[in-house]
Amino acid sequence: SYELTQPPSVSLSPGQTANITCSGDKLGDKYACWYQQKPGQSPVLVIYQDSKRPSGIPERFSGSNSGNTATLTISGTQAMDEADYYCQAWDSSTYVFGTGTKVTVL
Amino acid sequence: QVQLQESGPGLVKPSQTLSLTCTVSGGSISSGSYYWSWIRQPAGKGLEWIGRIYTSGSSNYNPSLKSRVTISIDTSKNQFSLKMSSVTAADTAVYYCARDPISSGSTYYFDYWGQGTLVTVSS
Lengths: 106, 123
Known about the structure:
The structure holds two protein chains of two kinds.
Chain A: E1 9-12, E2 18-23, E3 32-37, E4 44-47, E5 61-66, E6 69-74, E7 83-91, E8 94-97, E9 101-105
Parallel strand pairs in A: 1-9
Antiparallel strand pairs in A: 2-6, 3-4, 3-7, 5-6, 7-8, 7-9
Chain B: E1 3-7, E2 11-12, E3 18-25, E4 34-41, E5 48-54, E6 59-61, E7 69-74, E8 79-84, E9 93-101, E10 112-113, E11 117-121
Parallel strand pairs in B: 2-11
Antiparallel strand pairs in B: 1-3, 3-8, 4-5, 4-9, 5-6, 7-8, 9-10, 9-11
């Protein structure tokens, strides 16, 4: 079955740029999306179709996808961005989620 | 504004069947523009897609759960439901329902999620 691998954690200071990677075989040939999940809350879509932002998502969230890696970039990270982030793609008629990355803003 | 709300028993005994319903408000489940999915998340762990259904009743399931899962849809009530048989403690999780807007280009994602409901499997 298809797998998407993310780093378990990323730590950074406010104002820095976070790059969260999601690796999967030929992921660049598929569309990737990203969700933000804060403790006790449902996931929220922050990027879809590799790089599109849903209405209401701040411009500091951006995405890219090429080769075997999709990347979620948070520019000028704020304390409110501290959360778990999951990538997701579609493969063989199945939605596949990444392993998740905990972003800590120190 | 579309809202999804899960409902069902919070406690299920081992070997029994877990049953949950997702009620959709603010939009019609039979519009034909969406897939409707169930997703779960064990405490402290990641997200796992369970399966989805379309307005017509056509469904897809995660191969790892397919033998135990049935998803159905009731357009008259604007609801879709999940049944999972022969549950064990490993099925203890928060269960979410979610919507996937159908679009061209093989892009699949969830734009609206329910708040989630915790189901514990225990005797």
